Amino acid sequence: MTTPAAFEPLTIALIGFGEGGSALARGLCGDGGWRGAARPGDNRPRRVIAIDTALDLDDRGRALGNAARGLDIAIARDYGAQLREADLVFCAVPGEDALQAATAAAPLLKPGALYLDLCTVTGRMAEDDRAAIEAGGARYVDVAVMGSFFGHGHKAPMILAGPDAALAAAWMKDHGFTVSVLGPKPGSASAVKMMRSVMLKGLEALAVESFVAAQRQGILEEVLDCFGDLDREPFRRYATRLLETHVVHAKRRWEEMALVERTLVETGVEPLMTRAIAASHKRTVDAAIAPADGKVPPLEQALALLSTKVVRGE
Fold it and tell me: Do 77 and 148 belong together in one domain?
C-alpha cells in the first residue's frame, strides 16, 4: 500500500509513555522503524517526542525517562513547545485522563495534525475528545487497541474510526502497524473495544473464580483439559450458539448454577461471578421467553427477544 502523499509526518509525539507509548516508541525508533525509513532523497530529520507527566519524577518515571533516552527520544513532562512541532500524535494515557490530555494538547497542535486517541474510553467519551481536538484545528482519529502491547508491541491489532481513519491507517500499515478501518464515525472503534471487554474481562473474572476453586480441589489440570471442545470451532460461533440456546435452556442452566454456587461455597471460594450468572439466567426465566416448541431461534431473533423482554435499562 502506498501512503497518500498528503500525509508524511516528520515529527511524532507520544502523549503517555507507559506500556503503550513505550511500545509505540520501540516500533517507530527500532531497526527498520519509521524514524530510519525515510524515502530516497528525503534527508529531513524524523523526530519522536515523549510527553508524560511522570517522566523522571520517581523510580517508574526515571525508568521511563531512561527508556526514552535509550531510544534517542526527546522527553518532556508538560504540553509545550515541542508538541507544536508534531504532525502526528499518539495519545495513550489512562481513559480517565483522555479528555484532560486532549484539552491540554488541542491549542498547541498544528492545524491538520493527526491526533490518534488510543485511550480506553466509551464512545461518548471519544466524542468529547474529538470535539476538543477539532476545536483546535487538528484531526481526530478514534483508535481501539484490540490486543496487548505487552505481547505484540506496536503491532498490537488496532481498529480505527473517523473521517481521517483511512489516511492514518494507510500510513500506519506502511510502517508495520496492524490496523483496520471500521468507518467514518468517531467513537465506534472505542465502542467495539468496550463490548469486547464485556466478554474478555468477564472471562478473566470467571477464570479467577473457577481456577482457584479447581486448584483447591486438586483438579486444575482436569478442568483446563475439559475445555478442549471449545477449540473445535471459532469462538465467534461458540459464543453465538451460547446466546441462541440461552433462550431455550436458561431455566436448566439457572438450576445448575445453584449447584455450582454450593460447590464453590463448600470449597471456600466466594461465588461472586456465579451468583451474577444465576441472577442473569433467572432474569431470562422470569421473562418466560422460552419457545413452546423448544426450537433454538437464530441469533437475530434471540437478540430481539432478549433486548425487548429481558434486558432492561435506559
Answer: yes
Q: Within a 10 A sphere around the Cβ of 78, how many other Cβ atoms?
A: 12
Residue entry with cell 481501539 = 144
Reading the block at residue 95, the C-alpha cell is 481513559
The amino acid occupying position 121 is: V
Q: Do 244 and 148 belong to one domain? A: no
pLDDT digits (tens, 9 = 90+) for 64-104: 888 888 898 988 888 888 899 999 999 999 999 999 999 99
Phi/psi for 294 (5° steps) reads 70, 10
Phi, psi of 2 (to 5 degrees): -100, 130
Q: Range of 258's domain?
A: 227-310
* Number of domains forming the structure of the chain: 2
Tell me phi and psi for residue 296, to 5 degrees. Answer: -75, 125
d(CA 224, CA 239): 19
CA dist., res. 94 & res. 145, Å (int): 13
